[in-house]
Amino acid sequence: MGHLEPKLDLSPKVSDEIRKTTCYMCACRCGIDVHLKAGQVAYIEGNRDHPVNKGVLCAKGSAGIMQVNAPSRLRAPLRRVGPRGSGQFEEISWDEALQTAVDWMAPLRDSAPEKLAFFTGRDQSQSLTSWWAQAYGTPNYAAHGGFCSVNMAAAGIYTMGGAFWEFGQPDWDRTKLLLLFGVAEDHDSNPIKIGLGKLKARGARVIGINPIRSGYNAVADDWIGITPGTDGLLILSLIHCLLKAGKIDLDYLTRFTNAPVLVNEDPDSPERGLFLRDAKGKMLVLDRKTGLPTAFDAPGVKPGLAHGYRRAGITHRPVFQLLAERYLSEDHAPEAVAERCGIPAARIHALAAELARVAFDEAIEIAQPWNDFRGDRHGTMIGRPVAMHAMRGISAHSNGFQTARALHLLQILLGTVEVPGGFRFKPPYPKPPEAHPRPNAWANPGQPLAGPHLGFVMGPEDLALRPDGTPARIDKAFTWENPMSAHGLMHMVISNAHAGDPYKIDTLFLYMANMAWNSSMGTGRVMEMLTDTDPETGAYVIPRIIYSDAYSSEMVAYADLILPDTTYLERHDCISLLDRPISEADAAADAIRWPVVEPDRPGHAGVRGFQSVLIDLGARLGLPGFVAEDGGPAYADYADYITRHERKPGIGPLMGFRGDGSATGRGAPNPDQLERYIANGGIFVHHIPEAAQFYKPWNTAYQDWAVKLGIYDSPQPYIFNLYLEPLRKFQLAAEGHGDRQPPDHLRARIRETMDPLPIWYPPFEGAAIEVDTYPFHALTQRPMAMYHSWGSQNAWLRQIHGQNPLYLPTGLWERHGFAEGDWARVTSPHGEIVVPVAHMAALNANTVWTWNAIGKRKGTWALDKDAQEATKGFLLNHLIHELLPPKGDGLRWSNSDPITGQAAWFDLRVRIEKITAPAEAKPAFPPLKSPVGHGPKDLAWKVGR
Amino acid sequence: MHPSPSVIIFTTLSGLGFGLMIFLGLGAPSVTGWVAFWFYLIAYVLAVGGLMASAFHLGHPERALKAFTQWHTSWLSREAVAAVAALLVMGIYAALAVFFGLRIPALGWLGAALSLLTLIATAMIYTQLRTVPRWNHVLTPLHLVSTALAGGALLAGQVTPASVLLLAAGLIQIGHWSVGDTRFAEAGHTLGSATGLGSRGQVRAFEPPHTGPNYLLREMVYVVGRKHALKLRILAAGFGYALPLVLILVPGAGHVLGGIAVISHLLGVFASRWLFFAEAEHVVGLYYGARV
Amino acid sequence: MTRLPDHTERKLGLVIDLDTCVGCHACVVACKGWNTENYGAPLSDQDAYGAEPSGTFLNRVHSYEVTPETGAAQLVHFPKSCLHCEDAPCVTVCPTGASYKRSEDGIVLVNEADCIGCGLCAWACPYGAREMDAAAGVMKKCTLCVDRIYNETLPEIDREPACVRTCPAGARHFGDLGDPESDVSQLVAARGGIDLMPEQGTKPVNKYLPPRPKDTWEQTDILAPFLTPVADSPQGFLGWLDRALDRL
Ligand SMILES: Nc1nc2c(c(=O)[nH]1)N[C@H]1C(S)=C(S)[C@@H](COP(=O)(O)OP(=O)(O)OC[C@H]3O[C@@H](n4cnc5c(=O)[nH]c(N)nc54)[C@H](O)[C@@H]3O)O[C@H]1N2
Ligand SMILES: Nc1nc2c(c(=O)[nH]1)N[C@H]1C(S)=C(S)[C@@H](COP(=O)(O)OP(=O)(O)OC[C@H]3O[C@@H](n4cnc5c(=O)[nH]c(N)nc54)[C@H](O)[C@@H]3O)O[C@H]1N2
Ligand code: SF4
Ligand code: SF4
Ligand code: SF4
Ligand code: SF4
Ligand code: SF4
Ligand SMILES: [Mo]
């Protein structure tokens, strides 16, 4: 019998038009094809030509349509009318809003510019925002990196001139063994997934080192469920095993690292532990041919590793000897660390052996000659196909900087950095610490800052201290408490401003950071600080708060003036080489966003792109660079800035289509540049020549290419810092040398933690408390389908993660007799929460965890007050403090890495008790009044009906 | 399965209605005129009312006619066709009996057969579902049909057939429960087979695909407490079968006791039917961790 | 139409690699986006911004924990959509003919214009692959993106299901499982692809590639030689170092 099948239209028209722009449902910055029907967004898919995502898209990216149309979008500038934290606002015009901001900011600039603190969160326009803050003249500027992953960034750059994060990547096409340390999702979301897919397709081995076996760790071939905070121990033990077996790349070490550099060993010298240098300041190595100390980069030098050198009665030994001595010690044997790491010693041996096997027995070779900076020609490129990647699981601990350094040391000993099959930098990296600026923090009324705020200190002389030794910055970045805080300390701004320590500020200007909720430590306390008043004057302790958000977030309710931003499909943006790059290891790439739909908020004053607003404010304030010669605004808006701004002559935010449209990297501004980008799919990709694709820090072909593109002004070859001399300089200061001296209470800590060779020490919080009282480590993980707080407003995504249980390991689960649907009280030294729990067996036995930022405050994000995010969702942030528990020494030590100031989110320790299920999760805060009302009941979205 | 009121009402009432029709078609009782009118009215109200109730749970009742087209494969379609045929045939048969006092036995038998077919078709809708092991065996049609017949006999006032049928239906009901209780395990569906991961170890649902509810959970993953179910079984067996049997066997039981027996039976069958759905575990529940 | 075709010319379907799926839900949302805007009624959401939002999805990603007899527990992410069964019970139960299996390629579809929303097909499906849309009152299921895979307005390379196109890890494969030479069939053969609940007799077209064996640390012994110490004293180590450098 014939089948009557209905006739289908198999080729319906998908859209009227495709506009290619850049996703911003997270910071990965994938390329998207936005399909429009009748001018409305109908469907979003990945741009196949984009270097980041190559056509794929994650859950968030595909849900963009629910974000551009979210009921939580702000609609007009707002002025607070109720008390702070009530959510009561009136809508005002843009003129009024901008005038208010200028009225607050202009007098400050002329009297005390540091009283304006400008901090930005998840933004991607730091080259503009920092330039604005520089022009304004406040030292108080940073983005959110200080609470995010500065340990990773700083350790990478200081050690090898580039970091994991999104500044480098495994050689996905060639690697045979990948180690993932503490990664849940990372910024490079899609590239990591694409890469894992490639490894899987090839049958390469992936090993996940993570207390929790979910996500990437679930697909890993092997799982090492490490006890949180102990990765440094594990890594140094691997180094121990490899050294002992001689499984290290000696050729690589002598050529490309400071392993052979001679270190002063004179116990009495103020130079002790510093490098032996020649008159020009060049580091010296012992040449094996001549037996003489020779500049490390001298042509033809054959550096030795085994022998020391005595000069004027002072012993100098190569870095490698110090290193070997330290790590060959039995303190680092697998048997000595196994218990603390929660990993059997045999498994550590096995892991070390596997590293050795793949790095040396499965080495690869590419028939590609290249020249190094010493003038040596290499016939081929040798690859050690072991790649590693790490993220916040390592960096968000108070020993994170040293742990990340240890990991880089491991990579470098195996010779796997910037080689085929290993870890590769993405332009503009590699870039050694010396090539980065030093921090600038000296405010002068009415004057711009002398240079960029953030940078890489090379010794005590670079600290941002005032003449009296007090911190120059409100967040106390670049002080003795955290000397190498290269990204600032956004998590300290509100508490320091509230305490007036080191000084009081007037206006807190925040952009794209939900500081009154998921991005602060101790959310309840932060809300109190933001609303606290001076008992005498009744005025708010932090007098003014200006905030730019695009949505009705928790933070909105705590600001006095709201500058509403557009959504990502409604504005111009540039993803610039001057900022966080989207390059790939074999190409430089940048991109734009452009208004693929117009920002319309019918019946309201409307929204404006924050960068355009900032440029407008700069002009109104008369900031240098923001006003033209005729006194008018220098730039009409952000789009105009993107095309016309030059950071250095010929170098602007975008590298592509410069000059007459044919120049790349360097070239005069091109008025048609944005049009050209749009026609090119919103991106520009500039490939690295074959001969320049590996060994970038030392490869003359790469260095020349980078100079041509404008990344450097001159070639910047350098060697990797196994031994980090600047750390030693801080130790020397702590030992009493030099004229800049730390306060006495910090001396011991600086000596102990700022070791020039990687060390491990227990995370501070655990060391400060009675561990038996708080036996469990408490962690959060990023859910792949949610981006911090801003996924919950999305009708599709919130169905996937609308609530978050606390996952408990089997032992705990069974001991307490937990059952499905139960709740628990979770107590830390800083507070308690009451939350739903669930069981997970694939979990380190001493660890509990939950998804990050699912819990929401009632009344926000245009959700109903009884939304599950507000009744069952919760934050661990209530349990975390920016300070450690009091130690009884009268001081409150910061809950941060002592070197970089990175917030130690994952040092949290808790205890768990079973309790009867309450009506809702605790703490519960009163609902906020929504400035945008509530979303509709039901959705049946279809544009092209 | 979600014990949705519309389906419970539908199957209970229409079962009773068609059960009654069978007896009327067989001429037991052999009625004409007003008496017949009332009998047929009751039968039609029950059967059609049940069908109407079932239409309530349709997303598109206005397209119901389409449901008659697939009788060659679909039991639901067969049910629709059989039900309409039964109602038509019995309609003619009834009209003749009520208005002309004319009983055409062949027509009655045909109507009875079609009614029986309707009952069987309805039962087969559930029986055919391999996804619900509790239903997927021969006792299901026996249970549903015997209960409908017992109810029909009761309503038709046919004491002897009613008592035999009540006894049989009651026993089949108990059999259906006890066999049903082991069916899921016997069918061998486990989370291991559902995911294909069973050979690697103990499989446990970790995180649901969505934290919010969904259609599948609402419709197919319904869990009743054991104690609750046991209570309801006792009520169902007692009110549905035992009590009516006792009542009609009371010597000289009149209309009052007969009426009480019918009401008791109806209550019992409602309870039984609620359990029929609520206790039926759909294999999809495995994916959601509803069974270990 | 609810009669199943005696045979289909092709057996189009998906192959899902459980060894690779990271559980990111990208396929879930891409599917929602495509099928909301395309085939049939939009996939609606109820209580979208309320206490318990609940919408229609054609593809959902579960996750399961597997605890082996020895060794650590494992987590498996598990995407699930219609398996386009050869013996699709959902089709034969449908009273209206709205549910059908295409004889050309085996895709199981719902003709929404004919669907009365009785829900029986969803009951008949063992896999939870069908969801009734609460706004449209019709049954929804994976269409295998029938309006993409043949769509001549799309570039050839994009004529694949939305979920496959978007999967960042490359864990989803699309093709003709009836052709033993096809890439998907080869993959299934090479990796030992399996059927879900074979005992249901539905003969799913979609296949799942099981996770590869995990935590195979027992190779320790084979690896041991890689860690033979080069010396047994620090001095010895420096001596080795010198010799090794000489050899470079
Ligand atoms: N417990 C715990 N807490 C943590 C972490 C953790 O691991 N555990 N991680 C920390 C880390 S690393 C980070 S980076 C922070 C992140 O925390 P936040 O930086 O606070 O990130 P979001 O929650 O995304 O908040 C950003 C704000 O930007 C707004 N926004 C979104 N899009 C736009 C836009 O286009 N324009 C403007 N102007 N605003 C927009 C959102 O509405 C939201 O209010 O959280 C930190 N908090
Ligand atoms: N989808 C999505 N993507 C995001 C974000 C998001 O919110 N959603 N946020 C972005 C941001 S701001 C950031 S900073 C990145 C962060 O990217 P990730 O670093 O990948 O993010 P986290 O979720 O903080 O993951 C930390 C991981 O470290 C593990 N871990 C914790 N402590 C330890 C430890 O001591 N040792 C080891 N080995 N592991 C440990 C945790 O189990 C977890 O898996 O993600 C970015 N990408
Ligand atoms: S990873 Fe996802 S959300 Fe982030 S930019 Fe890419 S597609 Fe957008
Ligand atoms: S998976 Fe379910 S809906 Fe799909 S064909 Fe098989 S039985 Fe039908
Ligand atoms: S819900 Fe629609 S497709 Fe499913 S069986 Fe009923 S009529 Fe057929
Ligand atoms: S094939 Fe299409 S309809 Fe089916 S799950 Fe994938 S995206 Fe959804
Ligand atoms: S998109 Fe791919 S990796 Fe992500 S959940 Fe779906 S199948 Fe798994
Ligand atoms: Mo972050």
Q: Helical segment tally of chain B?
A: 11
Strand-residue proportion of chain B: under 5%
User: From N to C, what is the helix and strand string of chain B?
Assistant: HHHHHHHEHHHH
The largest chain-to-chain contact, stated as pair and per-chain residue counts, equals: A-C, 113 and 96 residues
* Biggest sheet details of chain A: 7 strands, mixed
Helix % of chain B is 55-70%
Structural domains of chain B: how many? 2
Please give a quick description of this structure:
The complex is a heterotrimer of chains A (about 950), B (about 290) and C (about 250). By secondary structure, chain B is mostly helical.
Please characterize this protein's 3D structure.
The complex is a heterotrimer of chains A (945), B (292) and C (248). With 945 residues, chain A is an alpha/beta fold. In chain A, 25% of the residues lie in helices and 16% in strands. Chain A is built from 27 helices and 34 strands. Chain A has a seven-stranded mixed beta sheet, with helices on one face. A six-stranded mixed beta sheet of chain A has the order 30-32-31-34-29-33. In chain A, strands 11-10-9-21 form a four-stranded parallel beta sheet, sandwiched between helices. The longest helix of chain A has 18 residues, at 94-111. The relative contact order of chain A is 0.15. The model of chain A has no long low-confidence stretch (mean pLDDT 96). With 292 residues, chain B is mainly α. Helices cover 70% and strands 2% of the residues of chain B. Chain B contains eleven helices and one strand; from the N terminus they run αααααααβαααα. Chain B has helices at 5-25, 33-56, 75-100, 105-127, 139-155, 159-187, 191-195, 215-220, 226-249, 255-278, 284-287; one strand at 202-207. In chain B, helix 1 runs antiparallel to helix 2 (33-56) and helix 3 runs antiparallel to helix 4. By secondary structure, chain C is an alpha+beta fold. Chain C has one domain: Alpha-Beta Plaits, CATH 3.30.70. Helices cover 23% and strands 18% of the residues of chain C. Chain C is built from eight helices and eleven strands. A three-stranded mixed beta sheet of chain C has the order 10-1-11. A two-stranded antiparallel ribbon of chain C has the order 2-3. The longest helix of chain C has 14 residues, at 234-247. Chain C is elongated. Chains B and C meet through helix 3, helix 7, strand 1 and helix 8 of B and strand 3, strand 4, strand 5 and helix 3 of C. The structure holds ligand MGD (2 copies), iron/sulfur cluster (SF4) (5 copies) and molybdenum atom. Residues 23, 25-26, 28-30, 53, 57-58, 60-61, 189-190 of chain A line the site of one iron/sulfur cluster.
